[in-house]
Amino acid sequence: MRAFNFAAGPAMLPRVVLDQVRDELLDWQGTGSSVMELSHRGKPFMALAQECEALLRELLAVPADYQVLFMQGGARGQFAAIPLNLASADATLDYLNTGMWSKLALGEARRFVARVNVAADEAASCYTTVPAPEALRLEPRAAFVHYTPNETIGGVEFPYVPDSGSVPLVADMSSTLLSRPIDVARYGLIYAGAQKNLGPAGLTLVIVREDLSGHARPGTPAVWDYQAVAAEGSMLNTPPTFAWYVATLVLRWLKAEGGLAAMGERNRAKAAALYNAIDASGFYANPVARECRSWMNVPFTLPAQQLEAHFVREARAAGLTNLEGHRSVGGMRASLYNAMPPAGVTALTEFMADFARRHG
Ligand code: PMP
Fold it and tell me: Which of 47, 73, 171, 286 is the most interior residue, by most CB within 10 Å?
């Protein structure tokens, strides 16, 4: 039986994608080999890589003056690569601290520049809020402004795009990219690990405005230099071909499902159904301020900690898996990425209501 898997990442993939992977695993496109066994420079894979970039550009409406890079090292690799490419050692950077991931990002940035200005800090709310737009204390001369539109652990999401003026805006979209339409032109750089909405782990997407690429500081390793990676069509080193292949199938699926507008509507409705169930229960609770509740990651607590192990065990028996919260915060968390069908959310809310009746 296939579970409804609520993991935060690596996360559930669309069933039709997995079926296709299975069907063509041993003989991909008549090559007599698996896609994993073929050269990234061979014709079939090169065509696939081109299709992947074209689909991404189409789905996200990426303007022509942006490079789309397929890299490795995860989002955390980018925590270092971004300052190395976009800032000199004596630069000041602005970081908005809204949770675990933005905090890790700014900690890494401190290793590479003279000063990181924490332009907003939501630690006092235990990361249950985002700063008001007018509360940002931005440095006019910062090399860039970094923020995390969706905090995967806290379940906190920006309901607005910060206005950084002429300073490039950098966004860690690991847990929100492709979940709805965005205006790429608002950003200097967008990056995301693939393992939530795009495909398997191992691939990292970077979308960078051309004028910001090509300025890596001396000493930057070539695999982290955006211009060097772009010049080689993201094949400076051997790319994670299997992950890239699955990502292409996921993008085909996304397009067939109606693209990002349709996906955004579906995701909004899925999240609303779960938050409504939590709020109406008198049993479960979500700590995040209503206006910045995440559509993708929904943390919730039970009235007593000793119920958590029961909840997880019974949920698993009902085919609802990986609902444990992040180890740093505890509680429960349901991640509702694109591949989670509405029926999965219905099954979860029905299970939650039943569990509350029996344990309330
Ligand atoms: N940023 C965010 C928002 C994330 O959710 C994660 C992973 N969960 C990371 C960064 C780190 O990603 P990676 O493991 O790909 O380095």
Answer: 171
With contact defined as beta carbons under 8 Å apart, do 341 and 2 qualify? no
Other Cβ atoms within 10 Å of 357 Cβ, number = 10
- Domain identity same for 274 and 196: no
- Ligand 1 mean position, distance from CA 10 (Å): 10
Of 95, 158, 173, 174, best ligand 1 pocket probe by most atoms within 8 Å of the beta carbon: 174
Percent above pLDDT 70 for the chain: 100
For residue 350, the model assigns a pLDDT of: 98
Instruction: Say what the pTM is.
Output: 0.98
Average confidence (pLDDT) over 334-353:
98
The dihedrals phi and psi of 345, each to the nearest 5 degrees, come to -70, -40
Same-domain status, 168 and 40: yes
Handedness of CA 15, 264, 337, 344 (dihedral sign): negative
**Total number of domains constituting the chain:** 2
* pLDDT mean across residues, the chain: 97
- Cα separation, 253 vs 247, in Å, equals 10
Q: Which domain holds residue 100?
A: 15-256
Q: Does the active-site annotation cover 65?
A: no
Predicted pLDDT at 237: 97
